Amino acid sequence: xxxxxxxxxxxxxxxxxxxxxxxxxxxxxxxxxxxxxxxxxxxxxxxxxxxxxxxxxxxxxxxxxxxxxxxxxxxxxxxxxxxxxxxxxxxxxxxxxxxxxxxxxxxxxxxxxxxxxxxxxxxxxxxxxxxxxxxxxxxxxxxxxxxxxxxxxxxxxxxxxxxxxxxxxxxxxxxxxxxxxxxxxxxxxxxxxxxxxxxxxxxxxxxxxxxxxxxxxxxxxx
Length: 222
Hints:
By secondary structure, this protein is of the alpha/beta class. The chain has one domain (5-218): 3-Layer(aba) Sandwich (Rossmann fold). The chain is 57% helix and 12% strand. The radius of gyration is 17 Å and the shape is globular. It starts with a strand and ends with a helix.
């Protein structure tokens, strides 16, 4: 059986990833492709517990190295439990964040550097690489405004607090944003950059164009 296709969506919180991954999954389903949709951190019982620890703004402070280690613990579990079995069975996997997020947030934002992230990825994740990464990169100001308004709305509705990263200063997010651009420049064959303050439909159109090409190459109907 041919191996499946691994597609990740990346970007700052507030970049529109959650909306776009839902639209992409629906687009695939209309074409008789049933993707496995997952997220990081989370996506497994173990990962959801790690997610709660990492994202709760009221949680005990987490040291940067601990934060990175927890991200990789979550990822290793997701690969073993969800991603690899799906790919081995020929499924398309859509994942909201993967190691690019760790490189951007911990490597860039926390200033731990890319080398440590990439080394841990090789050791703990078997160097599993996405076939395609869709990097949504609207302006920094637009992303932060949308993320903070979303968290305020969710908190008001009594949803679980996941705003720990949004409480960081703008300098942190600028480092994350710049690291994402660095990743895109370093790996242009894998990373498709969807840049600028586009409408939801405009972003979806660019995503569908990129995904259609990879599906054809992988032997799926597009």
